[in-house]
Design brief:
The structure is a single chain. This protein is about 25% helix and about 30% strand. The protein is of the alpha/beta class. Strand 14 and strand 15 form a beta hairpin. Helix 1 runs parallel beside helix 9. The longest helix is centred in the first third of the chain and has 20 residues. The radius of gyration is 23 Å and the shape is globular. The termini are far apart.
């Protein structure tokens, strides 16, 4: 007999899924996802959702707990959707993330791959995150910045977050109070009305810089603009001594995209500076930068070693961002050709390459990867890609295998699209020789992976 909505069941969990839930099966074989469970546990849970191919059960009692089960340290953990693994000891988190990557290669790549070492732990487990993107909405009679509750867009107000870097950890509550006091109307996702829809916080953990950006759903009125410049900015500066700059980003879409295409600076120069030894980088609120500074340096050094350090390599790097990995690649290569689409990041990359004394080694090509690769005619020894979560386009994969580099280094924050693109590379004659995982995001289910593919 099939399970029914609201039915209470006893389940034995098997393995972790990519969203942090654990997978179990009913006696009839139905897949059940159990958030908050760990592999190998016996739980009593309530069926809260049923779909054609799966169900979701909320655990009510852990009958047989995993020895690595932990007490979450954040009081909002049961409600907030920002973290998924605080109930697991940290060493167990790293093993679970390795399992997620291995599972993706087994299910999606479906070919031979090397043994995957346990995920490299983060140098710090809390206060590591140098960036926070918090939705803004109405809560408790005022304006609140917070995180979405699990599997919903209900905002859980956050006064402080123990995952954010200490320079910005208390700013969500501070900014919420200031916006409420000044009467700025919060955005309503359902109606599309209101003003501020997201708060973006960035800190330079190696420099002490703090950047604050507010994403607006419409243009500010004249009175709102004056209030922002003459009242909001002074209040923010008085509450955050390290505040370097404040920007205003405009996103007029009714989508889940956070950042719009237009940004203006309200205070400072609109930039923040960070150090990844031995390099320094400047970037704006819209740029991609790894959220865990110390772990990012480890990842980039490993990727550069995978790309080859003989000093004679010609390297093609796709999805280059502001040039962070680019500089590490140039350290051991004869030349690097870097391709990036987002123009604000292209401008920052030009400045960063020059500031770090690497202009002679790095050529920058602005524009989409697909537009640039068709014009490339030189030979490359290594191709390095660090695409968004959606992975590479088929056109990009086809180009890479056609120019036949000796090595391909693929960096990904999404094991599923990594394994999918890995299968396409295999069709083009490339096979994974080395897979390394890095815990860039402690207490969440996310994992960063670097893979070196070689041509047979």
């Amino acid at each position: 007999m099939a399970v029914k909505l609201g039915e209470r069941v006893v389940l034995r969990t098997e393995k972790i899924s990519s969203d942090g839930s654990c997978i179990a099966h009913t006696s009839e074989g139905l897949v059940v996802f159990v958030p908050g469970a760990l592999p190998g546990e016996e739980i009593k849970g309530k069926i809260v959702r049923i779909k054609r191919e799966y169900a979701i059960a909320e655990p009510e009692k852990i009958l047989s707990p995993h020895p690595g089960r932990n007490t979450p340290f954040c009081p909002l953990y049961e409600r907030c959707g920002g973290c998924q693994l605080q109930h697991a000891e940290y060493s167990l988190q790293c093993r679970l993330k390795t399992d997620i990557v291995r599972d993706a290669f087994e299910r999606i790549y479906r070919g031979p791959f090397p043994e995957i070492p346990t995920c490299e732990p983060s140098p710090i487990e809390r206060y590591y995150r140098n960036k926070g993107s918090l939705p803004i909405g109405s809560a408790e009679g005022g304006t609140a910045a917070g995180y979405y509750a699990r599997r919903s867009h209900d905002i859980i107000p956050v006064a402080s977050c123990p995952i954010l870097a200490k320079e910005i950890g208390n700013l969500p509550g501070t900014v919420s109070g200031i916006l409420t006091g000044l009467g700025f109307p919060p955005y309503n996702e359902k109606t599309g009305k209101g003003l501020f829809r997201h708060l973006i916080l960035r800190s330079g953990t190696g420099t002490g810089n703090v950047l604050l950006s507010l994403v607006a759903a419409r243009r500010l009125s004249k009175s709102e603009k004056e209030r922002a410049e003459h009242r909001l900015i002074p209040l923010l500066r008085s509450q955050c001594q390290d505040l370097r700059t404040v920007t205003l980003n405009y996103n007029f879409s009714r989508s889940n995209v956070i950042i719009g295409k237009t940004t203006e600076t309200l205070f400072g120069d609109g930039l923040i500076e960070e150090r990844l030894s031995p390099y320094r980088f400047r970037f704006d609120s819209t740029a991609f930068f790894q959220v865990n500074t110390e772990q990012a340096a480890r990842l980039y050094k490993t990727a550069a070693q995978m790309a080859g350090q003989e000093g004679t390599e010609n390297v093609l790097e796709l999805y280059s961002g502001i040039g962070t990995l680019t500089c590490f690649l140039a350290e051991g290569a004869s030349s690097v050709t870097a391709v990036e689409e987002w123009m604000p990041s292209v401008e920052r990359m030009k400045d960063n390459v020059e500031a770090n004394g690497l202009s002679g080694k790095i050529r920058i090509l602005p524009g989409p990867v697909e537009d640039n690769i068709s014009s490339l005619s030189e030979n490359f020894d290594t191709v390095v890609v660090d695409p968004p979560r959606t992975g590479c386009s088929r056109e990009a994969i086809r180009f890479i295998t056609t120019i036949a580099p000796r090595n391909i280094v693929y960096i990904s924050c999404n094991p599923a699209t990594l394994a999918r693109d890995g299968a396409l590379l295999r069709e083009g004659g490339y096979f994974p020789l080395e897979i390394k995982c890095f815990d860039m995001f402690p207490h969440t289910v996310h994992v960063e992976t670097a893979v070196r593919f070689a041509r047979r």
